[in-house]
Fold this protein.
Amino acid sequence: MLPLPKRFFVTAGKAASKVSDLNAFDTALLNAGLSEQNLSSVSSVLPAGIRHVRRRDLPMGTITFCVLAQQRGGEGETISAGIAYGFRDDGFGGYVAEGHMHGTKNSLREVMEWKMGEMAKLRGIKFRRIDYRIEELSIPMDHYGACLAALVFIA
Amino acid sequence: MLPLPKRFFVTAGKAASKVSDLNAFDTALLNAGLSEQNLSSVSSVLPAGIRHVRRRDLPMGTITFCVLAQQRGGEGETISAGIAYGFRDDGFGGYVAEGHMHGTKNSLREVMEWKMGEMAKLRGIKFRRIDYRIEELSIPMDHYGACLAALVFIA
Amino acid sequence: MLPLPKRFFVTAGKAASKVSDLNAFDTALLNAGLSEQNLSSVSSVLPAGIRHVRRRDLPMGTITFCVLAQQRGGEGETISAGIAYGFRDDGFGGYVAEGHMHGTKNSLREVMEWKMGEMAKLRGIKFRRIDYRIEELSIPMDHYGACLAALVFIA
């Protein structure tokens, strides 16, 4: 009940597939190191004191809470998905924004920067720094594609 | 694994925003006291013995299971979102319905009353009483808007 | 945090309703033995060592993680929803696919067999065996309908 995440890591993946967009998404999950988890999406707050750690392999089949961004698309499309995250400069934790679009990494970064700015304004705080992890894919002819990025909470 | 909620509270919020409906939603979350949590939506059962407590501040960033109703809209629209909940009169816990619509608080209440009635009929039970928590918003010109209501499970 | 499921069971249900598709869905949940739980959907991995057990009644109101397939429909439509699951033949756990469609049980089974095949190819593994649990419903005139199937994780 009400578990409090102690650490997190950020990961991302992308893939094209001739078979289906589901297949592309599954391959992107594999690339991101998340294909062997039971993912459960949550909203977007970093507890005070949480530590950013390097991506790691989690035990297979664990229920894994994460903020997940995903975008799927068809041939010729440019797609992107990303995670932005930053800690408050007053030390009281931080916030996460997810973004996804039919568009480039740069366009998505702008949208996410703006989202993070709104979250800060709303709470009257400033971010110490904002980090981004964004995947972009130009999907080849005769392929489906998927991009994803995730901030994964661990104990 | 399979955590059993021991207490719950009910909260709600609404907001208008010139910026975006996401911004309005975030502000409504702030008003409802839920902006600093990692929310995870679940369906809608009150365990036997669960206690209704007053809204409280939860530790920042906790994974928080809740039944969440939300409605977003644009200028000139009337929107509403609400939670209905009631305990069985035989003492075996209770049920929660969420509702949201482009419409008034009164219309939504009718819909939710009907939903709760269906849940009771289906199980052959009666409610001791049904409580409602509904937010309504008439969105001003040149604004976006969001209403939300939540029944929040705590340990 | 990161709970690891130890056992699972598979269940399914279907129902028609003159009232609404929500009512049909609720009745299908009741038939499946899941109407008294707080369901939380997760993706689709069987941990190594997890045991398949018989469907059982869970304590009312527990937060219950599951892979859930659902399909709702209107009069005259044929709908189906199902779960496919299989263990890797190398002993390292297994995978779950959910499927739902406006279509027959046989059509859905084909789609899900194909999905499971893709999951195996992607990881370079083989399934020892694939099991299916699929509900199909031909919705009567003047009725709504719902089918669901779920793989439910328990401690």
